[in-house]
Amino acid sequence: MKGTLAGLFFAFLAISCRDEKKTEAASVIKRPNIVVIYMDDLGYGDVSFNGATEIQTPNMDALANGGLRFTNGYASSATCTPSRYALLTGQYPWRKNAQILPGTAPLIIDTTQMTLPRMLKEQGYYTGIVGKWHLGLGNGSVNWNERVSPGPNEVGFDESYILAATQDRVPTVYMDNGHVANLDLNDPIEVSYDKNFEGEPTGLENPELTTMKWKHGHNNSIVNGIPRIGFMKGGKSALWNDIDMADEFLNRAKKFIKTKRENPFFLYYALQQPHVPRTPHPRFEGKSGMGPRGDVILEADWCIGEFMKTLEKEGLLENTLIVFSSDNGPVLNDGYFDFSRRKLGKHTPAGPLRGGKYSLFEAGARVPFVTYWKGKINPGVSNALVCQVDLLSSLANLVGSDEKSHDGEDLIDVFMGNSDQGRKELILEATTRTALRKGNWVMIPPYDLAPINREVNIELGNDKTYQLYNLKDDIAQQNNLAATHPDKLEEMKTAFERIRGQSPNEVQQLELK
Ligand code: NG6
Ligand code: CA
275: Cβ below 6 Å to ligand 1? Predict the structure, then answer.
């Protein structure tokens, strides 16, 4: 009798243990959908959730207030291509010398390299990108009238619908899984970044044909009245309509998440705003009172609201992790006259930070950064140091992959709000120059280069001597402590060299060459 009772007890225990294991396994297997919503040139201070008062971004705020808002969240770099490279590969872009690419540049991600979409695909995810790419396409000599490869589909995306490069660069067409969308082969496309095609108007020679005026660069081929970077001919039926671009990407992104599939999905929704040329749909024209730059921020905010509504309607909100961020800091006049400066009023796109796009100062790479997962991430603010380069390793942990990227850290507990222990150090990059953030300190090696980019009117962070800032008391980087804190400076130099593989002096020499 005793034996039977004990047997029953153990049998019961065994069953309940088994059940417990099962539920654990089930919750591990149930992987969330993952969406990265990525802005282009949106500054730390461009969103009302980071303190903007002159412009309201209610839909971005809804993500920030319902999720975790990072005050020390960084892109890897102060320009687009390198930041996007780091986001997708988990590798610092200066290892690859990744810099702003022309529209004819070959793909800079190796097709055998681990990427965020590839890692997720290996874990059973269905992966897609909609929006800006700017990581190169093809192998060097692209024929735009055939399938262009390699591209996003060859580095881990099941689906892609992208801008080949940027909105201000040719070819001004959408690429649909490697094919120029809506191309009529009787009117083939030719693209060159060296010379114009005979008889084609340019912004430089035919200003009367332009409706948006160029200020610097951007005076080659004219498409939809906007002079661009690079020359292009043909492909009339395929040319995009700039004012419809936001709707086009939104509709594609909505379609992607609405498609019923067995698998969880990963969507990289890379909006084009507020990069130049700023071309708000007429629905948003004049709405910000700040000119086109403000208008396209409102347009992007609306898109994000519509996108979120779709997730909610589809019943996906509780099962989708969203990361919201930007590829680099803000710039006003980036090459076109569009009243961005004149109509700015009291708005401060960089918030309290110094510099902007292209700068080694904080506003270059410190960007709006939010993680949102309804019911799983508790609303709050995190001051932990995080970077987009960490997403690959962190999301790998979340979905049960062992993948560890070269430079990214596994900070999933930080991104989920379960820990405030972020990175200890991070290399910041701006147009090939690098600096180090460690704890609250930033060290910028001496760069004997122009301190200000006069074209865009942004302080680049260059100085003949070392710069050392303590961000805790001096977020605006006004007090250079290099001379008064020699020990700290030495510590920073050593850490810089350890990660960077070159001393501050060596990187300075490289820049001067
Ligand atoms: C610069 C362009 C700028 C912008 C930038 C890339 C000129 C003079 N300036 O070279 O307008 O296109 O490249 O921006 O051409 S990014 O956000 O994609 O990095
Ligand atoms: Ca950018």
Answer: yes
